[in-house]
Structures are given as C-alpha cells and as structure tokens.
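For anyone still unconvinced, we reproduce a single protein record, the chain in one-letter code, the fold tokenised, and leave readers to judge:
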Amino acid sequence: MNLNTNQINKYKNKSYSSLHRTAKKWFHKFIRLRDTDDNGHGNCIATGKPLRYGTKEAQAGHFFAAGKYKALEFNEDNVHLQSLQDNCYGHDFASYAINLRNKIGDERFDKLNQLALISKREKFPEDRFLMIEIIEIYKGKVKELAKGKMFEVK
C-alpha cells in the first residue's frame, strides 16, 4: 500500500507506541471478524470452544508470541480467534499447532515456522510508516468484512 499525504498527516502527532496500539486494535478486530461467521460465532483455534465476537472471551491469539516474534505480530497466518483462557493463561500449543496446520495448510504452516526462525534472529524496526500502513490496511479490511455481518461491528 502506498500511503498518501493525507493518511500520513492524520497521524503526524502520534508517537510510535500510540500508532502501534492503534495498529494492534485494528488488526485484532480484523482477526476476530475474519474468524467468526455472519452472526458473530466462531471457535477457539486451540480448543474449539465456541466464542462470540464482541465479548471479552473472544481474542486474537498469536501462535508465535508477538513479544518474542515481533516480525510475526501482524502476520495473518500467525493470529487467530482464541479464547481468553487459552490466549492469556497458556494454550495447548500442540492443539493450536494441529488446528492451525489444518486451517492454513502444510505449505503456509511451514513458511510460518521458517519466518519464526528468521524473526528471532532479526530486530524488528520501529517504523512509524509501517504502523500507519497497517492501521489503514486493517481499517479497510474491517469495514469490508463488517458489511457482510448480521450484527453491529464495534
């Protein structure tokens, strides 16, 4: 995506941390919408537990932790609908791996693992323009997905 001057100027007074928080908000909202049906129902990637969009229980959970694998923080194959319990208090990594491989396929799963190995060795840059780009991309994706839902997306 090529950012235009208006998009950049809209965020000119925001710090990197503020942009990062906003990027996470839009990206996580996209993941929760992507992984729920038109009525807002979905299942935890790790356990299969039924979840409902808009509840505290329905989260966007990383397979490879965002803190350790910064380059995978905004990777759509790395983040999926997950229950609060599994996301925050320790998920069954083996079940997540099996279900993730089934969901995205062998090729993408293997590529994600390769990216994780690379990510651990490289420092992820704190790039304001990248955060603005992520915000703008996922705002657009959320608006597009929200059109097909049978509930109000907040």
The longest strand covers residues 58-62. The CA atoms of residues 84 and 90 lie 9 Å apart. The mean pLDDT is 94. Strands lie at 41-43, 50-52, 58-62, 79-83.
